[in-house]
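Sample intake sheet
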Amino acid sequence: MKNILNKNLDLKGKRVLLRVDLNVPIKNGAITETSRIEKIIPTINLLLEKQARIIIISHIGRPKGKVVEEMSLKPISEKLSFLLKKEVLFNEGLINENTLLEINKISDGSIIMLENIRFNEGEELNDNNFAKKISTLGDIYVNDAFSCSHRSHASVEGVTKYIPSYFGLQITQEINALKKITSEIKKPISLIIGGSKISTKIKIINNLIKKFNNIIIVGGMANTMLKHTGVGIGKSICEYDCANLIKEIIENSKKYNCEIILPKDVIVSKSLNGNGKEKNIDEIDENEMILDIGSKTISSIGKIISNSETILWNGPAGYFENPNFQNGTEKILELISQKTSNDKIFSVAGGGETVAAINKFKKFNSFTFVSTAGGAFLEYLEGKTLPAIKALNQNV
């Protein structure tokens, strides 16, 4: 893997096209969560130290090749400038002949951010002519956007055909962390997986079941497993047409000697706004819904974490948005972070809701690695080859 730490790479005065993911949530014009912006700062600082001229390429939302004012990167350029304590110039408008003129005006060790790359129609089409046009803006290309690397887009995959291309620091760290839970595994290794639908994560489970010792299923996914194994789950969220998927998981777990762990007890309520009551899984009434895991389940998860060398966590244990149903998710966070801090476990967490929970409980630095990548993170775990990673490996 060739990255920008390459000792022979002289970047002084070079125009570096830096593709990052700045797709952060914005509400009423204000950025509400900044972890994706913060994660690119080490790569930017390295390029500044090397006196490169940095051209930041990114996107927000899905404007579908049209200019959408609410999806401008201007407020993000201002936030990045504030975090770096350094001016970030902003280039408005679509990429055209004037873009290169503006880029060539900036001095060594300076930064310019281009407007939302998805405003350009050729981006999502992965149009070769557009990819070639992007490549003329720089001397080298650096991808530091793992979270976009499952997309075959011009600024992610296409551009690598026309310009010397490298991995950034964040994307290198992400790939190395994921390798340790997929191919360079230190066992025993356990997966804690949650979320509402088992059908969306069946490929992950079936890919990892061959390599993992334990798979702990929580959240709505656990409800579906319980329902299909004969447990009454009341009016809990559940997928009712997953009998074949459940059968597949159970058969594979036996085939590969991987233990599947389901909740022993749960927190139930008659509504999402209720207070919650702890019950064993065979005691749930028809008018109740499962909204969290119970104390016995937390205890059994704690023992598995204690006996593991590697942990992967994807998906909360319950409806953590309500404080009455956040205990399971919070306790899992505490158990993993405590063992991680003692250097006794390699821990990786990722996925949208998982990152939201980690941020809520201020545990972002309590894991060995937290992925903010979303779709790319999940596709990597499914065993897919990501287009941008493949392109970088071919064209570095």
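Comment: The two ends are 8 Å apart (CA to CA). The chain has two domains: 15-172, 185-379.
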